[in-house]
Each structure stands twice: as structure tokens, then as C-alpha cells.
Amino acid sequence: MKALTYHGSKDVRVETVPDPRIVDPDDILLRVTATAICGSDLHIYRGKIPMMEHGDILGHEFMGIVEETGSAVTRVKKGDRVVIPFTISCGECFYCNRKLFAACETTNTGRGAIVNKKDTRPGAALFGYSHLYGGIPGGQAEFVRVPKGNVGPLVIPDSGLSDKQVLFLSDILPTGYMAAINAAIGKGSTVAIFGAGPVGLMAAASARLLGAERIFMVDHHQYRLDFAQQTYGIEPINFDHADDPANLIIDRMDGRGVDASIDAVGFEAKGSVVETALTAVKMEGSSGASVRQAIAATRRGGSVSLPGVYAGWVHGFLLGDVFEKGLSIKGGQTHAQNYMPQLLEHIANGELHPEAIITHTMPLADAARGYEIFEKKQEDCRKVVLTNG
């Protein structure tokens, strides 16, 4: 089969690799019909994620048709059209029983990314996301083996919904929605979203769904801010032109700040020259610029939500400000299985339109070019979807 494989920083290739096969009784074999390039895939593309190996198959946002099932699979059958969550969860462990599927403690044979780990078991395995997370081949391919076939796959009813409408149930839509839930957004809430990439846009859509009254969005790509303003009614702030977005937000909120902030940027946030140098030599894990702005923009007693990827230590994390302002902070990998069914209902009812963010659709054979376009923000790229056949 053909699949997109990793060979180093900014070196990904569509190559012929062995076909996957059923290994465990609860596996399914999926023929991929659509897959997407995620913003977090760009961390891998830029060489920022450790424990990647040459030939690793990328991709954790995908869907398709069930081609074969293991003997223990009861939830899906051959011919079902399904979306696959990006985390691989057993459905039976301590965490899965608490609906914390991304914390599943049985599926990841890798180390995980906790620095001060002690004897803690790693969280769930992820598709196509390094040997820290199990080294599981991803879905930017023609076929993929899907473990735990009774827990992850969501069957899409024959209701006329296109792949593009439901594909993002695999990751970015539940990630944006959980970010809004973690931010305690409700009717009348005010929120600042840092980052207008795919997750930030899904967070804005989710915030509107939950009843947010005002949404500020901070980014430095004007075309993304313009889209978010037109589509979700956000108040745009371009940090190339505003020296201190957090202070601007505070001023617009009567000197208090917003009820909640969402950091949808993560560890590759653009920082100062010194912060960039520190992260380059690995003295810091991140500039911390985005999370500092999120903390600063949030009113006393408010919430800060962190859907953006972080690992290790963060430069200038102002824990004292969190304490002084009485802020609540929640983050982490998304428990996608927990949200996928209800979000599918919102899509079917016309209340969410995640496909609106797609700008580029291309065949899997052109995946390397898709990564380049997305990474360089060429052609006003917001989201790339890859298709088979």
C-alpha cells in the first residue's frame, strides 16, 4: 500500500510499505477514505518530536470503511463507515472507566512524555505520533490497522453526511470542544483564544455553540483572523500589530479580563529572540509566550484551558500570577471518545460545520506538498485533507 512516511525534519515521503494486517482479536482493518494533516503533525514535520524513526507512518485524523474485523470485534462490521479517534483506549482500565480515554494506561508501550514520571504508567497510545506514544502506524495511508475496535470507531449513519463534514470528529473538533468545556464556557461567557489554527477555530465554533457572548482571537496570520471573524464573529487581534494582546483584551473588558482563555498554540509559540534561543538549545521546552498571555488576559477567578501541545518545562510560567488571580487551569490530550457521539449529532442537526475550515483537498500522493503548504501558510492554507481513490 501507499503511505506517508517520516525521514527527518521536513522530509516526508509517500512510499510503498507492507499492508497492515489483523494482529489482535479486537483489531479492525480500515480502508482510509479521508485523512487530514493536523497542526500537531507539523511539530513532527519540523523535527520537534523525539523518538521518531525513519519510515514511521504519520497521521492521526482519519476515517474510512471497515475492510476486516478481528474475531472479538462486536461494535463494527465489514462495510461500516467509521471515524477513528486519535487516541487508542482499552475501555476497561481505571481511566477509561472514568471516561478519561486519553489517559488509558494499557495501550501505550512507549514511555510517554511526562518528564517527572516516577513510576507512573504512560497515557494512551496515539496513531502516528512517535514511539513515545507506542509507535503505532498512522492513518495517512491507504489502509491502517486499528487496535481496540470495540472502543474507538464511531459508525457514521447513512444520513448523507460527507467525509469532510465528519472527518474532524477524529481529533480537532473534540479537542476544540473539550478546550471550551475545560474553560467553563457557558451562556454569556467572554473568552480569548490564542491561536487561529484548526484547533483554535474549532474552539471558537464550540464556544459559540456553548453560548459565548464575546470571543477575542489572537494570531498573526491576518487571513486566518479574517476567516474567524466572518465565520464565528470573533474580535480579531493581530499580535504583529498589537504589542500586548492581553492588555488590549483587559482594556476592552473594563480592566478585568475575560472569563476564560484558551491557549491553542502550545509549545511552539513565537517568543522573543532570547526565548527562541533558549528553546533551540533545549534549555527551555517552550517560550511560554502564549500561556503567559492567556494567564494575563483572564480575570480573577477565571479559567485557562490548554489544548495546545506542551511537554517538559516552560519558560516564564508565572505560577504566582495563577495563585494571585485564583485561576483554574485544565489541559491535556483530548478524551475524544467521550465527545464524538454528541458532536456528530450537532453536525447532523446543522449546528456545527467543521468542514468550513478546509482550504485544500488533495490526493494522498501529494501529501508531502500538503505538508509544505500547511507549514509555510501558503495559499492562505487553513486545513489540508488528503483523500484516497
Key terms:
26% helix; alpha/beta; 2 domains; Quinone Oxidoreductase, Chain A, domain 1; 22% strand; Rossmann fold
Mean pLDDT: 93
Q: Determine the fraction of residues in helical runs and give it as a percent range.
A: 25-40%
Oligomeric organization of the protein chains? single chain
Please report the number of helical segments: 11
Which CATH class of the largest domain?
A: Alpha Beta
Question: Which residues sit in consecutive blocks of at least 5 with pLDDT less than 50?
Answer: none
Give the CATH topology of the largest domain: Quinone Oxidoreductase, Chain A, domain 1
Corresponding CATH superfamily of the largest domain = Medium-chain alcohol dehydrogenases, catalytic domain
Strand-and-helix sequence, N→C?
A: EEEHEEEEEEHHEHEHEHEHHEHEHEHE
Total domain modules: 2
How large is the radius of gyration? 20 Å
Report the end-to-end length measured between terminal Cα atoms: 13 Å
